[in-house]
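Narrative progress, year one. The postdoctoral researcher (J.K.) led the effort to move from monomer predictions toward full complexes, under supervision of the PI. The following entry was the first complex the group processed end to end, covering 434 residues in total.
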Amino acid sequence: MKFLNLLLDPLSNFQRSSLQKNVKLANCEIKCSLDHICDGSRYSNQRLNVLLYSFLVVLGRSLFSSATMISTSIGFETLHHSNLFGRQRVWGTIGSGITALSASRLYAHWKTDYVYIFPFIIISILTILITCFIHFPSDQSKKAKLEDDDAPLQQKLNDLSNNENKEKAKRKSLRFNIRALIPLLKKIDVIVFLSTTFIWGMSFSALDPVS
Amino acid sequence: MFNENSNHIYIDRSKSFLHRHYLLLKSHYFLCHSSLASFGPILDMTLYRRGFSNLEISYINLVVPFLVFFINPLIGYLADHTRRFRFIFNITFGLATILFIIMFVLPSLKTYHIQGQLYQTKTMKYSMVFCANKDFANKCALRSECGCVYQAICTPVRTRAYFNESLSMKKIHLNFTMNSENLQKNFKNPSISSKKHSTCDINYRVSINKIIHQYTEYTTRGK
């Protein structure tokens, strides 16, 4: 209240002498109600911290990307037929959706970053454990199953191989001819795939650096 | 080779349910992408909260694809050469997890608080004077829907007139806005000091007459 009196009372002797200039009433610390939004300048000599953070994030993300690639190889090595890959991989998408949503709901309730890191650690440990038990079939059993699956196609392939020999001569002349791709563009599947990849790639590359 | 008729895919009924339907592989993909999804989306937000600027985060994200361009073929060659896919996956995944845990445990980058002064002008008007960067006026204003307001925690300055008195000068908390109506930029700051750490981009002066009068009325009523 004394401070308020300083604001509201008539001018004291001290204040009358300060009529010609502004009167400093208080020193203030300016901040925002949300943390880390309105910070001031950074302390000096923190270059090592910045480099350490950058190194950890860059290397961590790269290794995760490599792990995803290896998991695809694990999938194709495990499956006896490559057509089954999509049915297995879709569970990855389902898992990422469920976990991202759950983590955000947990954060909305507890308002702490630990709701992200603890599930991350637990799920990572489970991933490593589950991966150890994935069974790779032997090459002979895979070959036997593949032959049983593809028996109806073998007959078609034998017919096609005869036509292929005739087309080989034409292909040699068209090896570096871009006109060989035109028949592909007449297929709607190819058009949809190329368009989706192109648009997604452009959008992702534009957003990712500033995500 | 694409099998047009999927009904011809062979299902070995002699195997257990677990292996017949590749449940372990499904679990592997479910858990692998779940772990990525639990931490990946908030990685940039974590860096922001630790004190990194938008530009620094952008540079970090920019480097990642180039590093992936070199690392992925190397690991792929190693996997193809050794044929130990599970082992290499576990090592890679475990290493990435450990790196992120270390990153999470590291302390935040330390920053100075913005120091300001509360002035009373000769015309009995009150203003808050401080120095900050160019984005300061927009940072909280853009997040007003999230409940972000600018705050000032003011400690009164002991003047000579009150030196011998026992003052219970507590800190006062003020909330103010940075509208264009009450905001002035780049004027001559009377209290700027030549400290080494202060990097003053813009001098701000915010008129807080209404806030002071509201505060005094509120406190007077409370008596």
